UniProtKB/TrEMBL annotation:
Keyword Ribosomal protein (UniProt): no
Keywords for the protein's UniProt record, in alphabetical order: Cell membrane, Membrane, Transmembrane, Transmembrane helix, Transport
Localization, UniProt: Cell membrane
UniProt protein name: Guanidinium exporter
Organism: Brevundimonas basaltis
GO CC annotation: plasma membrane
Transmembrane region(s): 33-50, 57-78, 84-103
Molecular-function GO term, any one: transmembrane transporter activity
Gene3D superfamilies to which the protein is assigned, alphabetical: 1.10.3730.20
BP-aspect Gene Ontology terms: xenobiotic detoxification by transmembrane export across the plasma membrane
Length: 109
């Protein structure tokens, strides 16, 4: 169950990052409220995942999902710049996430 919480927390990190961008520096009310709400749920699920998995694994996976997801959302929905180097960097993050998932850490999958 910890991995399920962690993946959902990572996906919600993408959502709150998107709304943070839309809040224009917390100057727009509803995107700001959405940012804080999704952030709270994301942190809560991360904390549940950390109850039964190593902190390092949980944090790296959570931030990795958020980083790569925010990159994709930025390119697809916000027309942010896409270059071969940025794609390579995102793929390296994904490779690191896969390695963290496959590495033995003493927890059950």
């Amino acid at each position: 169950m910890a991995w399920t919480y962690l993946i959902i927390a990572g996906l919600l990190e993408i959502v709150w990052a998107y709304f943070m961008k839309q809040s224009m520096g917390f100057t727009r009310l509803w995107p700001s409220v959405a940012t804080l709400g999704f952030m709270a749920v994301s942190f809560g699920l991360l904390s549940l995942a950390m109850k039964s998995m190593p902190m390092g694994t949980a944090y790296v996976v959570w931030t990795g999902i958020g980083a790569v997801g925010a990159f994709v959302v930025g390119v697809v929905f916000l027309q942010e710049h896409l270059s071969p180097m940025r794609v390579a960097a995102a793929l390296l993050v994904v490779a690191g996430l896969v390695l963290f998932r496959l590495a033995p850490d003493g927890t059950a999958a």
